[in-house]
Amino acid sequence: MGKAVITITPGESTATIERTFDAPRDKVFKAMTTKELIEKWWVGPGFTTTVEEYNPHDGGTWKFLHVKGDEKYHFFGVFHEVSPERVIQTFEFDGLPERGHVIMQRMELTETSDGKTKMRITETYFSVADRDGMYQTGAEAGLNASYDALDKVLAEL
Amino acid sequence: MVEYNTYLDGLFGSLADPIRRDILRRLINAQYTVGQIAADYEMSFAAVAKHLNVLEKAKLIIKQRRGKEQVVSIAPEALKDASHYLAQYEALWNARFDALDKILEEDL
Fold first, then answer.
1. CB contact, 8 Å: B93 with chain A?
2. Is B93 in contact with A4 (CB distance < 8 Å)?
3. 35-64 in chain B: CB under 8 A from chain A
4. Among the ranges A97-101, A140-144, B41-45, which has the highest mean pLDDT value?
5. In the prediction, which pLDDT does A8 show?
6. Looking at per-residue confidence, does A14 or A60 come out higher?
7. CB 3.0–4.6 Å: which of A105, A133, B14, B98 could bond B1 by disulfide?
8. CA–CA distances in Å: residue A73 to residues A64, A67, A106, A124
């Protein structure tokens, strides 16, 4: 159902990810917050995902394990607010040489009149460098590069 | 994520300004001299030259001396880098959301 729209404004330490799903909000929320279902969709390039901790309530923790061969990474954080309207959580990645690069994520789900659900994730990083670094990390993960995107960037300039 | 990549930071920072984006857009199809570019904007030659310096530092453009003039052309590699990072991240999220779409087709 369409493509995710990621917006990063140069010089700012935030990023937004938007996507519409062809399902009512409660269903989308359920798919996104059910342990067994997360393992099916929260994928990484060539990695298998295991949900080690998932406590979606205020103050609850979450911890996902990504494994590809000998490579093992954890993604983890704490929930601050959990409802179908809004989920606020922290996000950390243990593949970095040091702690402290925490991201605050706010996800908002809005049901449209035709029964679809608009999702908007706003990520706030401590610095522009942290944010830009995250995009590089994504690149190093070795997903198929789409150099066609160059045309897209150029068209938007 | 930890290593501060000044190159990338400069790249995104230099794309933040509408005049600099406009200059880049022109350079996609053609080369111009600094004088030609400056003539197109309602600002001083020095101000346009400043924008060109920012773009050059970010390795988005290349300036070459040709006789008395400086010819400016785009450096496509730099733009490829910026779009590359974003494209990778988009690919990751698109893969996740496509998988989620499949789950949503089922009765939950």
1. yes
2. yes
3. none
4. B41-45
5. 77
6. A60
7. A133
8. 8, 7, 23, 22
- Residue B93: closest C-alpha in chain A: A4
Task: Provide the H-helix boundaries in chain B.
Answer: 6-14, 18-27, 34-39, 45-57, 76-104
In chain A, residues with a C-beta closer than 8 Å to the C-beta of B25 are 154, 157
| pLDDT single digits (tens) B66-108 | 888 889 988 866 666 666 666 767 778 888 999 999 999 998 8
Which DSSP state fits A11? T
User: Quick check: helix, strand or coil at residue B23?
Assistant: helix
As a residue count, chain B comes to 108
pTM here is 0.63
Q: How far is B66 from chain A (nearest CA, A)?
A: 27
**Do A40 and B92 make contact, defined as CB atoms within 8 angstroms?**
no
d(CA A123, CA B16): 19
Residues contacting A130, CB < 8 A, separation 6+:
A13, A101, A103, B1
